[in-house]
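pipeline/complex-builder :: batch 7 item 3
reading input block
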Amino acid sequence: MSAQSAPANDRMETIVSLAKRRGIIFQSSEIYGGLNGFFDYGPLGAELKRNIRNAWWEDMVHRRDDIVGLESSIIMHPRVWEASGHVEGFTDPMVDCRESKQRFRADQLFFAPVVVVGEDGAETTIGYVSALESEDTAADLQARAEDLKRKLGARGTLKPLVVADITAAHPEEIEKIPSPATGKPGSLTPPRSFNLMFETHVGALRDASSVAYLRPETAQGMFVDFKTIVDTTRVKLPFGIAQIGKSFRNEITPRNFIFCSREFEQMEMEYFIHPDADWFACHEEWLQWCRDWLISIGIPADLLSFDEHPKEKLAFYSRRTVDIMFRYPFGVQELWGIAARSDYDLKQHAKHSGKPMEIFDEATKSKVVPHVIEPAVGVDRILLAVLCSAYYEDEVEGEKRTVLRFHPRIAPYKVAVFPLLKNKPPLVERAQALYRALKRKYNVFYDESGAIGRRYRRQDEIGTPWCVTIDFDTVEKDGTFTIRDRDTLEQQRITEDQLFAMLEEKLG
RNA sequence: GCGGGCAUAGUUUAGUGGUAAAACCUCUGCCUUCCAAGCAGAUGUCGACAGUUCGAUUCUGUCUGCCCGCACCA
């Protein structure tokens, strides 16, 4: 039975338990009761995460000619976030309906006073109407206003409605605006805003002038440092800047294990292209690249899908955004966002800093502000996807077996080395020699405790792809030992040279 | 942020107004020639803080965390 067939909740809890039990991932600050939205990666989790990071960096930066790396600081000048729109835009004012317990985004909740003009020309406000944003919000409100007039039996003619979203409402008006959920006034709260950026202070003085933010994304580093990189590295369009690093968002409700946490690690790449280049084709190429990459580290293609953001939901500076979705146990959710971001960010920084954000393009002999294609992904989300797709339970000779089928490239340990028996010194010596030889090049594990079958199962549970066992034939006959495959359980006899050659081939 | 449920060992669970147990895991020894064997032993637990009480893991409150639903999600 694969983990995918178990009930969603159980499957996720099982994976969370395993992660804890084997020291892969656990809650931050557990001895103090834990802290919501923060996680620690234990010895195995740290290896797994590092391997994912390294694989991405190797493929994205080292193995390409057109992408360079960057590590920008987590705390940047606060004006960076004014230019990027995060100081304003990361604030989502929300309105709650106390009665129905529903919550609405304030900028999507519209209202209008209903004003009737009497025969004598006097204007009377008979009440308020409200409606959520829809295909035709104005028509909805109009219909409700007419309804209200009819119900109250008001005489006179309706004045044309003045529609505004609820952020524009006066506090005394909030009390009179009906909740779109119940149709009755008096249950709405004033709009309350949540800024998702963590604030801190730089320097000893703690006042408004010392406020700084922990970055909510790594991308701005690439834009802010764009000019310096262009001036110092001889890059030519099209080219990319890649960065891996921590970002922080003060999420209202962190959920689903490490899927949505308050401190997370991003791998982002900004690919700069000529403004006249075929951005759509470039976007498509990156979509494909990212999907192929996920498959290359062992994520099954059938758990992946694309989600194209509808035009009306795009941020105003985005021409197109497509998310690569993954079928997590708790549902199909975003894994990797690939956005065509236009030249918005560079132009914003040019405007706010007063420094030109241009590059001289040899091909067209012109100075241009490039456009950007941005594949942005969370290391933690990839790790979760990897963990969920690697988890299997099967049966071996009537016993349940838990196995993590990690791709060898990202498995924490590549090989485990066992002496068949630990009370036979020649076996132990030979096993330890092999262990030391392997360790120079790979992360490997040595284990001599317990029955051999138990040792195999322990490695299965942490996803070690191969186990080798030194037996009497190894030391008395031909030097060969058995290598046992995690997924097929097959055993073969091979020599040390063959083992190294195989690892070179599978991991190189 | 709202509503509901939950919190006992690393994991899964039992249990009690008189400071707690099992299985698995882990560790040690014996044994063991390839898939969680056996025997002997060992480590380790009532989420936190108050209150009631002679005494609270148990009752009450607050907090924290986890799960589910709603809402939100760059």
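note: Chain A has three domains: 3-85+202-388, 94-174, 413-507.
queue -> next item
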